[in-house]
């Protein structure tokens, strides 16, 4: 947002000698001495920790407001006094106003914010040059002991990196970690060349969006690429996806703020916007697209979701055939619908069964959910079909067939349902296979499919913990190079298949099998 308080709050000189020594990203809070998430006040240059540590930067602003209030009557020109409302993250160089309670995208009339930012970047680069040799020696001699975990009695390196929670952003972290473990999808973005957003003396530095620059420089693809590149580099420090989140705020207004959001809704928005930007239709960013491989069907042959195919539709894109039959005259209507994921109801007869070990009644399986989705159903009075032969709305039946399976089959279990006053969660345990998910019986033309083309292996699972969509917590399980990991924001731990299959899945990511396995566990 554009902040109206910058001119009254940003008062420090861009090259202020009051800054602490050393690299800005390692500065310590003046109160608790923590070097995690340091923020510098742009009024007085004092350094405090951010709201996700001990919140002393916010307390610094609140204390200054109390002092201003206590002296309001005695100070004649109190309105002209500087406010300690604006601060800058010393790691990402993003700017935040506590009076607006939002990130800032504009600058002062004299451009002081950008000047301070460039000064901090220069300090960081200078500090990096001094420390680079020492750190390299330290890394060479440390032998990764603190990155080794015991797996089946042998030591193995844990290369996964967690994602910092920026304030109820676990929904985003779970989706990002899941997508980062879908190799076809992830590798495409990691191999893209970096977008040069700036030139001249600031070349290679992160782009910050000001009023003069507008939104043409915002690139979701670029920030998504940077995030994926950071997740499997073996860093012991959790990666902070602030730049990506900032771009998401800019182009997806539904996700602004720090409220808990729905992970499935976020995934769909993310994939849709990545698809649009890769097509070169979003924010003026031009990227090459990949050839279409029959992901969508039309009368004349092949097409796709919203025009030209991209890696999104090539990997996640499938086709449904929607078949509707008039119960009066028997007229049949067929329509092909592209999809990136399927949302499956949990059948009502299973909705009281909460755990796998609960004895009463059968266990709900993923096959039950798929059957409920594809079975023939009679449409109710509110969904009467307009029959072109009868020339009026008539009772009818509907059935879905899968015309084409995607390379990555994403299944969303509909765990949240609206009642008269609130949205309830269906906490039913749904049994799902880790390997050998067989989709052949749901195909429109199964005889045209090869023996392996309908089998899928589980790649990732997103889990919602808690009772409601507006609360709770999201984590993810994903497999990487034969091992299962549990991603819980900043924390990444090795886990096993027994733990994964007990999870109450919310979103399941299955990848198409390429080689035959003797250990099928068909659904």
Put the structure in a nutshell.
By secondary structure, the protein is of the alpha+beta class.
Task: Kindly describe this structure.
The protein is an alpha+beta fold. The protein is built from 11 helices and 27 strands. It has helices spanning 6-9, 56-70, 112-142, 170-180, 183-190, 220-231, 242-251, 263-278, 311-316, 366-374, 497-501; strands at 38-41, 47-49, 86-89, 95-97, 102-104, 148-151, 154-157, 296-298, 301-303, 318-326, 332-339, 342-345, 364-365, 377-378, 385-387, 392-394, 396-404, 408-414, 416-418, 423-425, 430-431, 435-438, 455-465, 473-480, 483-488, 491-495, 505-512. The strands form 8 sheets. Strands 12, 18, 22, 23, 24, 25, 26 and 27 form an 8-stranded mixed β-sheet that branches. It has a 5-stranded antiparallel β-sheet with strand order 2-1-3-4-5, with helices on one face. Strand 15 (385-387) and strand 16 (392-394) form a beta hairpin. Helix 6 packs antiparallel against helix 7. The chain is elongated, with a radius of gyration of 27 Å. The two termini are 49 Å apart.
């Amino acid at each position: 947002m554009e902040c109206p308080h910058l001119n009254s709050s940003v008062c420090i000189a861009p090259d202020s000698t009051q800054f602490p020594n050393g690299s800005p990203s390692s500065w310590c809070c003046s109160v608790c001495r923590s070097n995690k998430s340091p923020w510098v006040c742009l009024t007085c240059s004092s350094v405090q920790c951010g709201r996700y540590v001990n919140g002393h930067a916010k307390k610094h602003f609140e204390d200054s407001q109390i002092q201003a209030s206590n002296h309001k009557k005695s100070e004649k020109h109190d309105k002209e006094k500087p406010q300690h409302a604006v601060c800058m993250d010393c790691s990402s160089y993003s700017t935040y106003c506590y009076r607006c309670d939002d990130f800032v995208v504009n600058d002062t009339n004299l451009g002081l914010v950008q000047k301070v930012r460039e000064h901090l970047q220069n300090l960081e680069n200078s500090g990096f040059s001094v420390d680079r040799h020492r750190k390299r020696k330290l890394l060479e001699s440390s032998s990764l002991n603190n990155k080794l975990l015991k797996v089946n009695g042998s030591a193995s390196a844990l290369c996964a990196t967690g994602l910092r929670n920026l304030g109820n952003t676990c929904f985003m972290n779970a989706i990002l970690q899941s997508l980062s473990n879908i190799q076809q999808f992830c590798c495409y973005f990691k191999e893209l060349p970096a977008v040069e957003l700036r030139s001249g003396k600031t070349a290679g530095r992160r782009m910050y969006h000001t009023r003069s620059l507008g939104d043409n420089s915002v690139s979701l693809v670029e920030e998504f690429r940077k995030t994926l590149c950071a997740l499997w580099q073996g860093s012991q420090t959790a990666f902070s996806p602030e730049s990506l989140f900032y771009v998401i705020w800019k182009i997806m207004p539904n996700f602004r703020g720090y409220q808990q959001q729905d992970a499935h809704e976020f995934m769909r928005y993310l994939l849709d916007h990545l698809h649009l930007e890769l097509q070169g239709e979003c924010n003026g960013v031009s990227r090459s697209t990949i050839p279409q491989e029959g992901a969508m069907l039309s009368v004349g042959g092949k097409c796709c979701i919203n025009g030209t195919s991209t890696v999104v539709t090539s990997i996640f894109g499938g086709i449904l055939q929607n078949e509707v039959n008039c119960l009066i005259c028997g007229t049949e209507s067929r329509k092909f619908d592209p999809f990136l994921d399927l949302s499956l109801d949990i059948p009502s007869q299973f909705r009281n069964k909460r755990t796998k070990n609960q004895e009463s009644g059968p266990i709900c399986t993923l096959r039950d959910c798929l059957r409920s989705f594809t079975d023939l159903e009679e449409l109710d009075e509110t969904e009467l079909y307009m029959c072109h032969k009868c020339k009026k709305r008539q009772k009818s039946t509907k059935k879905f067939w899968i015309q084409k399976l995607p390379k990555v089959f994403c299944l969303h279990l509909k765990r949240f349902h609206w009642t008269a006053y609130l949205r309830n969660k269906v906490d039913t345990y749904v049994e799902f296979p880790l390997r050998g998910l067989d989709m052949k019986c749901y195909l429109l033309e199964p005889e045209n499919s090869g023996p392996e083309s309908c089998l899928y292996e589980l790649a990732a699972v997103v889990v919602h913990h808690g009772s409601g969509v507006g609360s709770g917590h999201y984590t993810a399980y994903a497999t990487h190079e034969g091992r299962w990991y549990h991603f819980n924001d900043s924390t990444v731990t090795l886990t096993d298949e027994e733990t994964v299959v007990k999870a109450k899945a919310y979103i399941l990511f299955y990848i198409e099998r390429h080689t035959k396995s003797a250990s099928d566990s068909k659904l």
